[in-house]
Amino acid sequence: MYKSLTLLLSLFLCACANSIATAPSSPETESAKVTTLSQVIKQGMVVTANPHATKAGADVLRNGGSAVDAAIAIQSVLSLVEPQSSGMAGGGFMIHFENQDNTLSVYDGREKAPETISPTQFLDTDGEVMNYFDRKHSGLSTGVPGIVSMLQLAHADHGKLPWGSQFKRASELAEGGFEVSARLHYFTSRFARFLPKEINEGPPDAYEYFYDTDGKPYPVGYLLKNPAYAQTLKTIAEDPRSFYEGDLAKEIVAKVRMPPRSGALTLDDMVSFKASKKTALCSGYGSKKVCGPPPPSSWLAVGEIMGLIDSKKPFDNNGAASVSNWIEFAEAQRLAYADRDRFVGDAEFVKVPTEGMLSRRYWQKRMNDGGKAKASQALAAGDPWAFESQREPMYGSDNTVDMAGTTHFVVMDSDGDVVSMTSSVESIFGSARMSGGMFLNNQLTDFASKPTDPKGNQVANRIEPGKRPRSSMSPTIILDEDGEFLMATGSPGGNSIIAYTAKTIVGVFEWGLSPQEAVELPNLVARGDKVRIEKDRASKELIQGLKSYGFNVKESAGENSGLSVLKRNHDGSLSGGVDSRREGTIEVVDFELDYRR
User: Fold this and answer.
1) Whose CA is closest to 141, among 101, 209, 223, 196?
2) Which residues are catalytic?
3) Tens-place pLDDT, residues 65-105
4) Residue 501 near residue 490 (C-beta atoms within 8 A)
5) Domain that holds residue 67
6) Which residue, 109, 132, 224, 255, has most beta carbons within 10 Å?
7) Would 533 be classed as within a structural domain?
8) pLDDT at 595 over 80
9) In 3-state terms, the chain is what percent helix, strand and coil (to 5)?
């Protein structure tokens, strides 16, 4: 609940009450005064990576829906119009803030591996890792989809509208068609040569969906229809469990098990899947808290970056204009990434040093140790186990390839409740296999391709039956010293999600920028022995300063971020930030006046 707004409203009511005590009145004027006294103007906001999705979410809010209702509408639309990024046959994480009592909840919809999966399924007969696209475009790569179960679970807790009503806009677009956007056309053009075109290469679902009879991708503006998806939404609207237990589930399993490179998914895997509700992790950050999902999300690294920064207070007063500030930000990233890459996995299968990685004493030690390494060298993982009650074995060095097929959005509703949600099909168009008009995920390629490192040590993120692969998805909510909502942020972008998300927090709360200004900052990703930065957004002075410091700088032509940010200002108003690197939009929702005595 917004204390600043409450205080202003109280002062306003007192002033008006004094005027009423001295002014003559009639029934008409008295009624008008009561109305004036009791007006509470509410404002909500939706920020997504696609204008169709933004409008769908905003319309749900206008119709009395909650932030979770809007999230359901948004995700159902994104599955159709942004299939290169996410879908109803994918997975995700949602963090929800309830304004009435300042509580946070995490909804985990991460996919699970089939129970009969082989730990070496991505290795060929010689024990070598298969070609990435052979892994991706296969049944081997698809885990049990988690989005539908996750949305159902969140809706049971926070939904206001009847389940299924949220799919209206997506169904209309699927049946009537939507115009192919410039971004979708870019991906169908660029990735055409990688998609299966003949049955011996794999089911040619994506090719048949996106390309004409001459093999050319449909142009920008082409009206693309997907009646199969409309039917899927109708089925889910009637009973969300039918996604996991009915004919649709059987269709998904059959497509996954088609050759070549058949997957191990069974109907039993689908039937037994349930998303979970969890307690959010929070990291102290000055007087604030930065919060996000526990593993298998990699949010721990976002929390560690902000903790490292807070424990050292490294920034000068020149904000984003200071080269030294960017250097310090990069160093914090390098330390956190090294820890994340070594220690984070599915906490139901491996012990994760959560307490250690979020310990202030560990942050201080980590910052001191980090200074001993040259900027051009990769930093080793630290020892967060030393700050845990029980020490566990050090895991092997990781070899996971984490690609960028993801989306992120944020919503605030009329109650001040907030959703920050990141969802994914993993890589571009997921496995490229379709069922029910949906692209099936290839999230199992988020596991380490080998279960052990070159020294024979087991990798935390190794493949195991029923296990969820580690995810870079890190939806984040920041709270003030009273536990009230300040900001929601997050991004797509594979491994780089961690850096992109942390950049917005640094930009707003350390460098004094608006959410939009923070989003537009150059993306800098410091992982391993390289520091990658957008050359067209960064100044020459910044790039040269990073090089002079000793970083191995890679000047990137662009970054695949898709940041969506929503911030509560001091006066209770809202401001948003949306990534110009994608097709995102912001829509402010002015709710009807709510009259209260």
Assistant:
1) 196
2) 406
3) 999 999 999 999 999 999 999 999 999 999 999 999 999 99
4) yes
5) 43-278+399-523+559-595
6) 109
7) no
8) no
9) 40, 20, 40
